[in-house]
């Protein structure tokens, strides 16, 4: 992997490694993190790659820090980000809760960063099995204050790489933290990954400049970054400015994959690992002649409400939100559908991964009686 | 401090007479350093912050570091420090200044990076960040203002509140039995190998102010030489929350605080062994 230059070549990578390699290629030169299962392979990978990169390109000044806590890691990112460096941290659910402080501060200061959450069962320590229990936390801002983060939800290892690579551009473009959410399944499994020609190794010198960054006030007036704005009318103005930016993101960035939706009269909505299961279940149902489709949100925020609403307008009989939690995304599906059709929910929390057969059974039951919500 | 700010107005207008290298610095001793903005500070009368701001600003100017400096103010009374320092600054979350400073310094190893923290910020909520930044030997300078109380929030008990000291959350005086003893930061950090320089000074006399400036200058020298982590702890008055007048508060620093927080150099990797120790050289 070390020697991989820009020539596309298939590699077998673990999800966490795909994230790490994509980050390095995207120009991430600062990683800070604290160990937590099931994402430890990512800081391990970053420590190795940053070290290798330092040997190859000392001028790139790659930094890896194993921090004393998640709090410290995210606040190290704040410092790295304010200097203009592309930076990333990663953790799993309980650790992401700790990082919310820094994410809120960075959203307030409009600082870019990429935060990876390999979700596990919760609440509390929960367990380390695959779960999607942090949907609310990820999509509602997560920390205190009025803000959102862009949330990307890959469903393959290839997509772990693609979306991580892109996450850095999105973070810089909007000067906002971006979350990449997976789970233990996505993080641990291995799949072939290709870094395409349009995903080259990006050296720091060739990244777009950040004229807002702090690097010392040489030849210009001094500047400062803050999130404390005491006068209410000034804070309100700042909130409006952030809001207008978020609105722009909501207009431009929602993304979803549609599978057999065109002629479907029943649509499953699922993301990440759940979407993989749903894809198989939908295929099983199609094989039996049921007109079932799948909408897979790729961005959890901004949510692809428009495409769901348009699908509802085409006369779909019912929707099913399938999640590995007790029903969180179902709220967004209902908000998108706005009563045009019944929205059902099926989920397994606690790290239990349902089989396609189980889900197909649920789909068939609702398909035959779509009006009755469960 | 207000005096110094107003007198600065006139200073740049005067043409400096033929500069004699040695005399140059002393020409307008009260002029506002170029590293400070022309602003009226919000600090209470008798508060040490304005003096300490000035000392840090003077050191940055005199050492020619201003153009490569990034400062990290805390949450607390000094949160608005970026309205006073004319250098790049980024506000940290409460207690996280050392972590944020670490992020900056690692990306910009040649920059001069300092955090400016109070006792609650540094020795309570930010203890982990402090201890581990120090232990990693981060090449940053910490200006630690110890006034034995939470100032901005209205006078609650701090980790450095003295035994017996009454605050809004220790109305009967701090008791070792329930609230523990005051945290001695210099002593705590002195055992860590990443630490290059530790000094505690007291800001309660012109001599103390001069000595504090010297310590700050030394700490920045240590950083510029890349020797490791440096911290200056400054015993500083908070007359408002101590419910004293400025004169009484200076006396309290001398007669009470300095007994628990003994001034002196606690670590100096550039010194000979026999020069070290927690005793005040005066």
Descriptive labels:
heterodimer, A: 374 residues, alpha/beta, Rossmann fold, five-stranded mixed beta sheet, 41% helix, B: 282 residues, two-stranded antiparallel ribbon, 10 helices, 9 strands, 34% helix, 16% strand, globular, disordered N terminus
Characterise the protein shown here:
The complex is a heterodimer of chains A (374) and B (282). With 374 residues, chain A is an alpha/beta fold. Chain A contains twelve helices and 15 strands. In chain A, the strands form three sheets. A seven-stranded mixed β-sheet of chain A has the order 3-2-4-5-7-6-13, with helices on both faces. In chain A, strands 10-12-11-14-15 form a five-stranded mixed β-sheet, sandwiched between helices. Chain A has a two-stranded antiparallel ribbon with strand order 1-8. In chain A, helix 6 links the parallel strand 6 and strand 7 (177-183). The mean pLDDT of chain A is 96. With 282 residues, chain B is α/β, with parallel strands linked by helices. Chain B has a single domain (38-269), classed as Thiamin diphosphate (ThDP)-binding fold, Pyr/PP domains (Rossmann fold). Chain B contains ten helices and nine strands. Chain B has helices at residues 2-7, 49-62, 97-107, 119-125, 127-136, 176-179, 185-189, 206-224, 239-242, 246-260; strands spanning 69-72, 88-90, 112-118, 141-146, 149-150, 156-157, 195-202, 229-235, 264-268. In chain B, the strands form two sheets. Chain B has a seven-stranded mixed β-sheet, sandwiched between helices. A two-stranded antiparallel sheet of chain B has the order 5-6. In chain B, 53% of the residues are buried.
Task: Summarize the topology.
The complex is a heterodimer of chains A (374) and B (282).
Chain A lengths: L9 E5 H11 L4 E4 L7 H16 L6 E4 L3 H13 L4 E5 L1 H17 L3 E7 L15 H5 L10 E3 L4 H18 L2 E7 H5 L1 E5 L29 E2 L6 H21 L3 E4 L6 E4 L2 H16 L4 E6 L1 E3 L3 H9 L4 E6 L5 H9 L5 E5 L8 H12 L7
Parallel strand pairs in A: 2-3, 2-4, 4-5, 5-7, 6-7, 11-12, 11-14, 14-15
Antiparallel strand pairs in A: 1-8, 6-13, 10-12
Helix pairs in contact in A: 1-2, 1-6, 3-4, 9-12, 10-11
Chain B lengths: L1 H6 L41 H14 L6 E4 L15 E3 L6 H11 L4 E7 H7 L1 H10 L4 E6 L2 E2 L5 E2 L18 H4 L5 H5 L5 E8 L3 H19 L4 E7 L3 H4 L3 H15 L3 E5 L14
Parallel strand pairs in B: 1-2, 1-3, 3-4, 4-8, 7-8
Antiparallel strand pairs in B: 5-6, 7-9
Helix pairs in contact in B: 2-8, 4-5
